[in-house]
């Protein structure tokens, strides 16, 4: 089976590494000739809106999937009549636009921060009054890893104008900043037959809008786990989704009073699921392939306790990473640049206590090389 | 780092799959254009004694390793002045010739079956009297997976002549067949600095000379585990070995009286170590790369209990394999032929009891597709 992946970055690379043992083969389309996936299959270098490149890409494929949510819908629409595209265009239309995403959350009664859609500076002025400050503006389209965002701490006109310029006067969601205590994500997978499996709730820490660390399973109250599954399952059903889907949440409050507030969805394998390579019975990458291939889903059960620490903008020496007992290096074969995810380290232990004991050395190594901006 | 592997079969493929996450890159030399490794790096199609192919293969490599022990020593000798070859030619000179292997075992006081080296039919006649029957003849060179072997049940002249013909009148080891109760292997890894790590002792079952199933860790008496480590460690030291080394043993006797008798060594990653992909903290493939790359060795600790079942001569439908809870399919992308290893299934559980409960379904699936001859 030959699978085409739109995007040749580290997510495509790790998906292919999970698929090769199943004798799946891969072709990638990416504008960059040095794409990390080049070692794991055939890389077609071309733009996503280049019809000739799409033709070469599509020839002989059994399936198409995407490694990023901002793939042009026109590319998906051009491919869909020729080869199954999973997940389908509907998930992308939702994931690509924060206004659609918010509409989906509210239609499913999933709690979200107070928000308003703004298309003009005047709309921003009106919205700021309704939503209040501190708030955050996020462009409706093409935001990721903290890009396309601006904080709005005060509602005076100078602040509003500055924020409107900071998002380049693009349509935005203005969102009340909530006093969240923690961040979480639910990575789930839905098969072609509608069966759904959930990885344990993941505890995330971001820095400058970029995921820094994930721990799974969380040790948070059971009702949060249940609630995350319900929300993610409802979203997957509503989108008639096939593949791995991630939903990011804020956690508001503590203990029995804690509750989840939806932040955003990612219609793809997700950085907060990388720990599943070592830390779950079946990795998110293999399960994505099982789902889109119409195969039975694999167990999402955790194997002990895992932490994933991103390497951002810099890489340690291999020997330094490998001398940490139980640390697993994933090096994306990308040129380091400030703020760019170039690898990650996973450490797995049988108990949470052992994991928390092992984690500081891994985090210290990452901190010693990371260059965020 | 660009690593060259002589041989492009499944062992090379799985080694590359372990190395790609470390941003190691691979080139393979193999006479077969359809070699399983073709998806994981650059495949140079050529014979091992083709100087031009060896030149193309060697260009720009940082390291060379081998996926099989029968690589022509002349090829290694041609490469060694240009690029580090690990493990070195000495291990191959030993692993390629059962006479050398036996000499090594006896020099290290490692128990072996009663044996004699025979080069002529007359030597066979004399040896059969000394060694006794039932015995087995194994060609000194180029035997694997039961090939190049003949049983000798009786020492009458007709039987001797028939056995001599069956091994094509090649130099042989005549070995007394021992009444072994079980078969075992010790997979270990020795680093460039001489540090050595041992995976747990593996219980193996062969059928028609081909490995059928491995379970690790074994539940055998602790003194066998200790003894296997001592023997494998002594062999690795004696060969000044770098990389993964496997030693196969027969287990004679039961309980406290059980003892190991060395059968053969394999100077490479080994089929009885495939379970380490899911079942150990660091796989044998990654540890081989760490060792030859001069990097710190990874933990060889098991993660629960694992069984590996070979797929020989036939492959199940992907969906059939994937519907078995916790079964991990490794499909080598090879054309099935009777007696050819084309994949394996690994199942991992937290306890041995759970593993033994899960194993029959995996074995039944393998049995339903295997074609041994």
> What would the average pLDDT of chain A be, to the nearest integer?
95
Tell me, what is the CATH class of the largest domain in chain A?
Alpha Beta
Number of domains of chain A: 3
Per CATH, the architecture of the largest domain in chain A is: 2-Layer Sandwich
Largest interchain contact: A-B, 34 and 34 residues
According to CATH, the homologous superfamily of the largest domain in chain A is ATP-grasp fold, B domain
Estimated helix fraction of chain A: 25-40%
Reported for the largest beta sheet of chain A, the result is:
9 strands, antiparallel
**Assembly level:** homodimer
SSE run of chain A: EHEEHEHHHEHEEHEEEEEHEEHHEHEEH
Count of DSSP H/I helices of chain A:
12
In the CATH scheme, what's the topology name of the largest domain in chain A?
D-amino Acid Aminotransferase, Chain A, domain 1
* Count of extended strands of chain A: 17
- Intertermini distance of chain A: 41 Å
User: If you compute it from the alpha carbons, what radius of gyration of chain A comes out, rounded to the nearest whole angstrom?
Assistant: 20 Å
Your description of this structure?
2 copies of one chain form a homodimer. Chain A has 373 residues and is α+β, with helices and mostly antiparallel strands. Chain A is built from 12 helices and 17 strands. In chain A, α1 links the parallel β1 and β2. The longest helix of chain A is centred in the last third of the chain and has 18 residues. The mean pLDDT of chain A is 95. The interface between A and B is medium-sized, with 34 and 34 residues.
